Amino acid sequence: MQQDPSLRPPTRRFLVLGRCGDKSLHKSWTADTSVRRNWDLQLNSYAKDPANCPDEDLPTVFDHGTKWDSIARHFRARPELLDRYDYIMLPDDDLLMKAGDINRLFEIAVAYDLTIAQPAMTPESYISYPILLRIPGFRLRYSTFLESMACCLKSCYLRRLLPMFERHFTGWGTDLVWATLMEDPAYRAAIVDAVPMTHTRPLYSGPLYSSYAEGIDPREEIHKISSSFENMPHGMQIYGGYLANGWRVGPVAARLLNGAGLLAVGMRSKKRMAAARSSAGLLLRAFTQASYRPEQLRARPGTDMARIGLGMRRPQQVQRSPRT
User: Fold this and answer.
1) Statement: the pTM of the whole predicted model exceeds 0.85
2) I need a labelling partner for 294 at 20 to 30 A (CA). Which of 35, 106, 114, 226 fits?
3) Region Disordered: what ranges (predicted)?
């Protein structure tokens, strides 16, 4: 009798849990079979035809909810996965990525002790936020904002966030706070420019959005989450980073280089004007907020975030420095 793969001792430290439908691009993630992956792939599927999402390294789980309530149920039913793997990536199914690049994302997350990270987006991508575009010359940029479409989290941190996903399962608003919810969040969240990905689906066109007509209001969820904290950061901040050559740069240099790079890359993107505005904002903040350092979000008493214990602990007194 063949052993259930989910019960075998792990040989890889990392997990990619892809939320996949009938038109999923997840095959691109494993197409290069010459790469020795450091991650297992499991699918959490909303496909109508099960044949479109067969078992990968672990058995496929079928769940026809929205992304975040499905992911919460996935780990509530399989908590051993959070113990088995050090980091877990949660990509959408409309992303083109290579196996070797996903390897690199996990390696960089470990090397720089990141709590949460994401690949940078190629200029060909459909983008919501130009700050996430891949900037030549950078290895990674420390940021107060990471999007939900391809986040990679420490498993222990993902465990802490599951109650938030259960309450705010569209995901709208969670990516405004999860980079600064941990204690002493400075240098814990990064956009990884060394790892590219391409978002292929036009914005607001996926199957998830059809559920909004059924009474789910994502904008209400954004308001609910953002109003749950006393010290929400203003704007999306870049406050340091590492260049491709390994040199560390501080807030001023990171913003100047990011601003200039974004202006060039943004002109080749699908949101040229938005990229130009973001570039101007980065250049301005290089001088007006030169000493910015993110602080842990503080939940307002009586809110959902306070009840589930997110944002209730004060930042630690010992300041953490970036990797040297």
Assistant:
1) yes
2) 106
3) 303-324
Q: How large is the C-alpha radius of gyration of the chain?
A: 19
> Residue 253: which residues within 8 A CB-CB, separation 6 or more?
none
Dist CA 190 CA 91 (whole Å): 16
Rounded CA separation 18/57 (Å): 12
CA 56 to chain centre: 22
Residue 179 burial (10 A CB sphere; 0-12, 13-18, 19+): buried
* Chain segment 119-146, per-residue pLDDT in tens: 999 999 999 999 999 999 999 999 999 9
Q: In a 10 Å sphere around its CB, with 0-12 CB exposed, 13-18 middle and 19+ buried, how is residue 49 labelled? A: exposed
Listed residue (298, 259, 283, 281) closest to 133, CA to CA? 259
Spans of all domains in the chain:
5-307
Q: The tokens 């891949």 sit on which residue?
A: 134
Please list the residues that pair with 188 across neighbouring strands.
none
